[in-house]
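Retro notes - structure team

What went well: the batch runner handled both jobs without manual restarts.
What didn't: labels got mixed up in the shared folder, which is why I'm recording both outputs here explicitly, each with its sequence directly above its tokens.

Job 1
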Amino acid sequence: MRSLFKGNVVEKLAKVRAGLRHAFAVQPETEPLAIEDVQLLERIAETVVKRGMAAPATMFLESMGPMNFLGSQALHFITPIIDCVCSTKEVEQVARLLERRDTVTRLIAIIEATSAPKGATAQ
């Protein structure tokens, strides 16, 4: 009788372990962004560079990179408040992009490419 009980517990633990294995998985970084997402990142980068904030924005993004998922959840939370200032569609798009781990590094690369002098070569 005891071996039947132990076997049942072991099976249940195996099922729970299998279910939790991918509970906190995120989308793979190799998945390409949609065209609209890339265009939005380019618009953000152009705005940052036009205002002369490329270096501070890059430093901020690099320091806050690990917190991008929390930022996306905060954007989802304050979307009704931001709605009167920004487009709800764009805020939702930014929040969705921040859920991906590689978005911040891509935005930093776009900002650096946009702010580079026109005739400069990559070293």
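Job 2
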Amino acid sequence: MDILLLGPPGAGKGTQGAIVGKALGLPKFATGDLLRDAVKRGTPLGLEARAEMEAGHLVGDDIILGVVREELGKPEASKGVIFDGVVRTIPQAEGLERILAEKQRKMDAVLFFDVSDEEILARLERRRSIEGRADDDPAAVAIRLRAYREQTAPVLSWYESREGVRRIPAVGTIEEIAARVRRALGK
């Protein structure tokens, strides 16, 4: 079962993706994790990604899709994957659709974690106070939210026009949200 998690930064995709992945016995792919792993392993795509990141550029769609293609070729991904924010642009959505089709697979579910900006800001501020993450400071969060709205939010419409999207109200406790996810997946 291939499941795509969409939503703004701080919507809970990572937390819920880990819960769903564990429950279904599926690996979770997150763009940042995949890129860091490819860089660490020194793969050709990892070296390309590192050069882009060190130059201060966003990693391009071709590199992202190449890394996803490599990961989907691993045995542990053969039964499905939880894609945690992997698709950030329409070209990435189209590319992922092609990659899955090559493997005679399709996206089985697209879940959108619906949460207000106010809640996101509060969550990320709490996370910053606990974890001390630099990317959770208010200026960085504003940049990430703007990038999300400009680049990633259109992906939601793309999926709504194709497969449909299951909207998850992403407020409440982790357990309450996980129960909504399970219901949306029929589990």
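One thing worth noting from job 2: The chain has a mean pLDDT of 87.
We'll revisit the folder naming next retro.
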